Inverse folding.
């Protein structure tokens, strides 16, 4: 299994036309992946999937060997978000499969389309605690859109086709396909295979794309009579590729807009109608606007608790219109007067199709502009003039990259500051872990994003703690010369935890300070990657200019002020209008 192979031996020189006829389940799987047009798979081999890896060797398909299964699945998530295609992952049974669990849960809650293949012990020994057996069907049932365990090789083409269909339609999400080893080794009779053109037949799964015309009429009526309307855009706009329609709609009716964390990029970050992100660390204007609005048009957001704050005081005066591809989301958290089930793009096209009276929004715009003047995002410069604030670092990164980069983040304070201080020019350029808040996500997600968009600049903004959870994937930057730029906003602590302890636990910093950190520059160099360290404000601009503009991978360890808080903040349980830190004390 571990025999030394030379580089030449590693790459089979087989052309597609020379591909062998499928002979076993593993071959059928690889053929099915080719049929789906899969360009790249992220994974890690092991005993239960050796037959599949052998089939991939003989019928080459691009496989990226991560250094940990969690790295593989977050890379697949980053790839999916940026390419708007499903990410594909493979791992062995037992620990390989369980190492994927965090990523599967992450993809489920953020609706990321993934098809995840896990090895399994042979069917004859399932349930006997066989070597590397884990009940991945049981484990992943609540965190997948659907899961399959293949029992018979002749089902493989159908199951793979269905898995991609389910993952990438309706409300997107992860699908697990569990592959017992004997099924991958079983020979089959070509005559037993279903026709490759057999249509997908899933009577219980028929997502609604086209919105109901009468509901669209009701939305139009409410919007045209509004005095204080606001649009809330979520990730549903991005999944539906509806940035163009959304922008046209808000411009035509002069509708102010705010986004969720995951909806960033659905409208230009510096559009004059854009009030910025709403929610726990949203802008004061966006949060006040939601509280005061009389019509709230939610397009593709699920009204999660980090967005709404206390539901009892959320948009108390608003007629709520909610467009969502998943009917289960409508009315789940926020009572909704106009439910519209459908795809965000088709719903916006329907709204654009029939011009209606522009709402009278002059006074509302004046009020919002006054709020923006009064409550801008703010920070106080430190006494030590050379100390760097993370917000300043992000403003510099934004300036150097001109808002054009694909930005991924890890989870913590740096994530919220990036959402606030890196207004994105483009859609499909923002990759962050929203619902699950998964530390360790940001860096491998950047790797997947760079594979999806090899010619674009990808910047991974990480905290010093979260980066260490998946830092082993540095090897991939070197191996594939991926020009990802890792920016570590290094505050030597678990910044977000420390902030909550400061605010709600009287500064008892219980296990949130990390005085000992690796030398990140040396760590990068150990993997053959150029490392930079920024200690002072004076040197910050020049180093970011050099590192971010280079064509090579780079890690930038940017030392930032430790005791600095993300503001404004809606404390847990508080309403959006009860933000703290809207202005300097
Ligand atoms: C896997 C995981 N474990 C724990 C947490 C809880 N948590 C949220 S933010 C945070 C601190 C992150 O620290 P760092 O990566 O340094 O980023 P910073 O907040 O300092 O920017 C922690 C521990 C989490 N979100 N994910």
């Amino acid at each position: 299994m571990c025999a030394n192979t030379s580089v030449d031996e590693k790459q089979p020189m087989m052309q597609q036309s020379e591909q062998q006829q499928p002979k076993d389940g593993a071959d059928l799987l690889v053929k099915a992946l080719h049929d789906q047009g899969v360009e790249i798979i992220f994974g890690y081999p092991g005993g239960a999937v050796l037959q599949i890896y052998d089939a991939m060797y003989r019928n080459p398909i691009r496989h990226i060997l991560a250094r940990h299964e969690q790295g593989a699945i977050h890379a697949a998530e980053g790839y999916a978000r940026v390419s708007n295609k499903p990410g594909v992952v493979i791992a062995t049974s037992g620990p390989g499969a369980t190492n994927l669990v965090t990523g599967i849960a992450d993809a489920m809650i953020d609706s990321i389309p993934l098809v995840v293949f896990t090895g399994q012990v042979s069917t004859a020994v399932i349930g006997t605690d066989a070597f590397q057996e884990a009940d991945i069907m049981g484990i992943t049932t609540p965190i997948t859109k659907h899961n399959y365990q293949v029992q018979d090789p002749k089902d493989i083409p159908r199951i793979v086709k269905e898995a991609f269909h389910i993952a990438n339609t309706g409300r997107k999400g992860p699908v697990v396909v569990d592959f017992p080893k004997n099924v991958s080794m079983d020979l089959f009779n070509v005559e037993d295979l279903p026709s490759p053109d057999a249509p997908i037949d899933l009577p219980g799964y028929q997502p609604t794309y086209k919105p109901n015309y009468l509901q669209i009429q009701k939305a139009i009526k409410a919007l045209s009579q509004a005095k204080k309307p606001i649009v809330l855009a979520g990730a549903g706009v991005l999944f539906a590729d509806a940035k163009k329609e959304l922008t046209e709609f808000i411009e035509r009716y002069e509708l102010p807009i705010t986004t969720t964390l995951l909806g960033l990029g659905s409208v230009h970050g510096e559009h004059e109608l854009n009030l910025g992100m709403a929610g726990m660390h949203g802008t004061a204007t966006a949060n006040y606007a939601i509280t005061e609005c009389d019509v709230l048009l939610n397009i593709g957001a699920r009204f999660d608790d980090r967005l709404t704050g206390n539901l009892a005081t959320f948009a108390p005066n608003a007629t709520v219109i909610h467009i969502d591809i998943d009917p289960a989301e409508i009315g789940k958290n926020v009572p909704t007067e106009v439910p519209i089930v459908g795809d965000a793009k088709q719903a916006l096209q329907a709204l654009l199709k029939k011009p209606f009276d522009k709402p009278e929004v002059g006074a509302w715009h004046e009020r919002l502009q006054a709020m923006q003047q009064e409550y801008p995002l703010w920070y106080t410069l430190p006494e030590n003039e050379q100390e760097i604030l993370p917000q300043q670092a992000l403003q510099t990164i934004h300036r150097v990259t001109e808002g054009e980069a694909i930005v991924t983040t890890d989870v913590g304070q740096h994530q919220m500051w990036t959402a606030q201080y890196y207004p994105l020019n483009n859609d499909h350029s923002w990759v962050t872990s929203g619902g699950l808040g998964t530390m360790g996500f940001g860096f491998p997600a950047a790797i997947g994003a760079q594979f999806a968009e090899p010619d674009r600049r990808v910047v991974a903004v990480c905290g010093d703690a979260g980066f260490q959870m998946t830092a082993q994937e540095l090897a991939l930057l070197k191996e594939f010369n991926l020009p990802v730029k890792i920016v570590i906003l290094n505050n030597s602590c678990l910044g977000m935890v420390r902030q909550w302890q400061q605010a709600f636990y009287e500064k008892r910093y219980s296990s949130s300070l990390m005085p000992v950190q690796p030398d990140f520059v040396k760590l990068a160099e150990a993997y053959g990657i150029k490392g930079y360290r920024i200690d002072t404000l004076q040197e910050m601009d020049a180093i970011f200019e050099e590192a971010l503009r280079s064509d090579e991978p780079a890690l930038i360890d940017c030392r930032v002020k430790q005791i600095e808080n993300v503001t404004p903040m809606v404390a847990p349980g508080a309403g959006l209008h009860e933000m703290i830190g809207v202005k300097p004390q």
User: Anything to note?
Assistant: The first strand starts at residue 41 and ends at 44.
